[in-house]
Amino acid sequence: MSRPGTRTGEAYYITPDKLAQLVELLPSVGSFRDICAILGLRLDVVRREAAPFLAIMKLNGTHPQCGCGKDRFHPYGCADSYAKSWPADCVPGRTRAESVIILERRRIALEMLVDGDRLCDIDRSLGMSKGGAKNYLHFLTPEQMAEREQNVTRRRQAETQPQRRAA
Ligand SMILES: [Zn+2]
């Protein structure tokens, strides 16, 4: 699927994984520039990819708010958004450090999912409540999903074979 007007260049394209991370960051991050810094994407890419999700949030009444009372990410900035662009006090809900932890936890969860780990084991090892790992399932690409299914099957066979031999 090609979009009209797409240019080449790594930062211009967004992988499904980065898109998922972007969506997860939207409610907590202070500015598009912070998303650029965390995900290594260009500002115009972040703005373009975030737009449909922010439109949905707006409709649902869950659009994140700026301290000045406008919708967050509003153009031209304001005293509040300038203050938040300082690394020391960028705390609209979550700090940058917390964002890093969230992303790292998800990276590990996705790795374990692809490896074929059981959902309850992933929940336990990442200290998430029951069902946490299940929420990460829809971040997997079709290829990663196929790889997970293969690994789950392989693990099941490895688990049942010794029993067969013993019987
Ligand atoms: Zn503002």
Tell me about this structure.
With 167 residues, this protein is mainly alpha-helical. It folds into 2 domains: 9-94, no CATH class; 96-167, no CATH class. The chain has helices at residues 16-25, 32-39, 43-60, 79-84, 96-115, 119-125, 132-136, 142-166. It is elongated, with a radius of gyration of 20 Å. The termini are far apart. Bound molecules: zinc ion. Zinc ion binds at residues 66, 68, 70, 74, 78, 80-81.
Query: Count of DSSP E strands?
Result: 0
| Weakly predicted, low-confidence segments | 1-7, 86-92
**Spatial extent as radius of gyration:** 20 Å
Bound molecule types: zinc ion
Task: Give the termini distance in whole angstroms.
Answer: 53 Å
Question: How many structural domains in the coordinates?
Answer: 2
Q: On the 0-100 scale, what is the average pLDDT? A: 80
List keywords for this structure.
mainly alpha, 8 helices, 167 residues, disordered N terminus, 59% helix, binds zinc ion, 2 domains
In short:
This protein has 167 residues and is an all-alpha fold. It contains eight helices and no strands. The protein folds into two domains: 86 residues, no CATH class; 72 residues, no CATH class.
Task: Provide the fold topology.
Layout: H1 16-25, H2 32-39, H3 43-60, H4 79-84, H5 96-115, H6 119-125, H7 132-136, H8 142-166
Bound molecules: zinc ion (ZN).
Zinc ion (ZN) binds next to helix 4.
